[in-house]
Structure formats: C-alpha cells, structure tokens
Amino acid sequence: METGKISISKTRLLSLLLLSGFAVAGCWQLVAAWSRSRVFIEVHAASKSPAFTPQIERLDPSLDSLIARRPEAFEIAQGFKWTEGPLWLPAGRLIFADIPSNTIRIWSPDTGVSTFLSPSGYKGSAPYGGPEPGSNGMTLDANGRLTVAGHAQRDVWRLEQLDPHATVTILADTYQGKRLNSPNDLVYRSDGSLYFTDPPYGLRTQSDTDPAKKLRMNGVYRIPAALDQKPGAPPDRAKLQLLIKSLPRPNGIAFSPDEKYLYVDNSEPEMFWMRYTVRPNGSLTDPKLFCDAGPYAHHGAPDGMKVDQQGNIYSAGPGGVWIFSPRGRHLGTIHFPVPVANLAFGGADHKTLYIAASSSLYSIRVKVAGEGSHTQ
C-alpha cells in the first residue's frame, strides 16, 4: 500500500515540483504500567509576557488576509526544555508535551501551567539515555478522546477520558511483528481512521542505525477504524497499513479541510513538504512536492502543521512558522528567535495560533479560524 517512491535527491525533487505544477516558494502495554505514573498537582501561576511584534517575511500580498501586518504576539509560558504537540481542548485549555522532561502539561489562561501526566512516554526504571523520553504529538478523536503519539514509548495510545487514571487503549505498537520506531505526529480522518508518522527521533540515538530500531523505513501509517477500537482492547496489528516508506524523516501531518489531500513534511536531510491525494479507501496516491525549503539558512526544520478553514497550511519550518496557500504558494513566514516545533489553533473562535517553540509557548491572533475537525 505504499505510494510511488520518492527520491530525495535535489534533482528528483525539482522534477517532482515541475510535474506537480506547484510553486516552490513513544512499546509496553500502558495500562499495566499506568500505576507507576506520577501525576503532579503543582500549578504555576498564569503569566503573559508583554506583547511583541514578530518579524514577518511577506512573500505574497494575500498574507494580509490571514494575519495583521503588525500582529501582537505573547510568550504565555516558559521554562521548559522542548515543547511539542500543542492541542486546544474544548474546556478552554491548551495541552502540550515537554518531551525531554517526559511530561504532558496543561496551560490555562487563568491558572497557568500544571502537569497532567509524568512520565508520558518512557517508563523504565533506568535513565533513558536519549534526549527525548516523552510523548509527542496529540489530537482528539470525534468522541473527544485524547490520542497521543507515544514517541519514546514507541506506540500510539488513546486516553478514554481526559483523566491520567483513565483507561488507556493502545492503537498501534508494531508493524509486521516489529516495534514501531517512535510515532511523532498524528491526525484523524472523518471516517475514524488515524494516520501517523514514525521517524526515529524518540530513539536514544535518533538515527537509522540505533540498535533498538527494528524497521528499516521511517513510515507513514494508517489505522483503519481506530475510532471504533474498544476501550482497553489490544490493537488489531495485522490491519495497520504502511502508506509511505520513501520519506527519510516524515514528521508533521495534516489533512486539507475536504480531506482530498494529506500533507506530510520531511525534516531532514532535505527539508520539504509533500501532498498526497487520498483515495476513498484511505490509501494515498499521486505524490507531489508541495514546497521545497531549499538550503534555508535558519534554525528549525519542517515539523508540526495545521490547516485553517480556507485550506491554508501553517507549519513549523526553518526560521519560524511557514504559511502556504492551498495551492502550495509560500505566502510568508512568522519568524521566531528559536526553533518552532508545532502549533495549534485555539481560543473560543479558533483564531488564536498557539506555537510550541523550544522552551516556550507563544500565542498570536490570526484572521481565519483553524479547521475544527482536526484541531479539536
């Protein structure tokens, strides 16, 4: 079920670009281990640093319809190590991961940051020995259940209620009898299937030669009918579908609002975004280069991404947050002084963009709401 293979050479990338017509511009059963989890009730007071105006690289006039010319941005929380997986919750809070500290935290505009779950990924008694022992990307299913890319735990799991003591359901942990690498980011389709990326960043060495790495590829997978898996039931491992195995480091993943397309970006060694056509049965076809970052001389790389209601794509990228039109035009970049890992639309109107950038969380207002079915 793999799509057509994609060479990562620059020549091949440019060839794909021309053909497309687009502009370039963590595995143990968690239920058994859950009793060892530690839930903290420490709460840090809410804080909001004074507003600042981020530098915005404007490449197309249409960016003005998406973001103010001089927008205010706020650092709403700080003091972490590497923030990831931000997700706006219907209760009006933001949940996010701090991967190196192996925690999932919740931010509230009123009370600040509290720790929801620790450990969130690796649960061994010995020190992990790698830089990223925690969980990574998160999303909600159609029933409002938190679904997590386990990263260093090397699985994908679902929390049946938003309570750290709730039943945990493992949705995927192996492919053809071999442990997954370290699931990174994930997104549901409206048919209840779940798509996720599986690079090696949650392994101790983060490399393809890591002794624990059992799968040769770094894949993109689909879990059919993930929504219907019974609480606490083991995954139907034989049904896990490998959709893409030719990307060196697949990372961020998102659907277009009409689910006609799936976007997947690649973090290294070359930095680019791909677009795939989604067949009715959920498989992928017609891989096209959406945008190539080229030899961009800035910190950061393609990472987490989200889509607004008009189909514009907001993605972590070199230098900050890259914004694309639905046709692949790079409209501009919101620059940040530190690498950006992921982002999420939130707020009562879904017009606040929350940005996980290294040791901090930021917020910035935008003019078009995020695509609700994939942001909550």
Describe the structure.
By secondary structure, the protein is mainly beta. It has a domain at 10-47 and 84-300: Neuraminidase (6 Propeller), CATH 2.120.10. It is 5% helix and 36% strand. The protein is built from 3 helices and 28 strands. The protein has a 5-stranded antiparallel beta sheet, with no helix packed on it. Strand 8 (138-140) and strand 9 (146-149) form a beta hairpin. The two termini are 29 Å apart.
Q: What would you give as the CATH superfamily of the domain at 10-47 and 84-300?
A: TolB, C-terminal domain
The helicity comes to: under 10%
What characteristic shape results from the CA principal axes?
Answer: globular
Radius of gyration: 19 Å
Total helix count?
Answer: 3
Give, in spatial order, the strands making up the sheet with the most strands.
Answer: 1-7-6-5-4
Contiguous runs where pLDDT drops below 50 for at least 5 residues: 1-45
Reported for the largest beta sheet, the result is: 5 strands, antiparallel
CATH architecture annotation name of the domain at 10-47 and 84-300: 6 Propeller
CATH topology of the domain at 10-47 and 84-300: Neuraminidase
CA distance, first residue to last residue: 29 Å
Helix and strand composition category: mainly beta
Provide the residue-averaged pLDDT. Answer: 89
Q: Strand percentage, roughly?
A: 35-45%
- How many β strands by DSSP? 28
- CATH class identity of the domain at 10-47 and 84-300: Mainly Beta
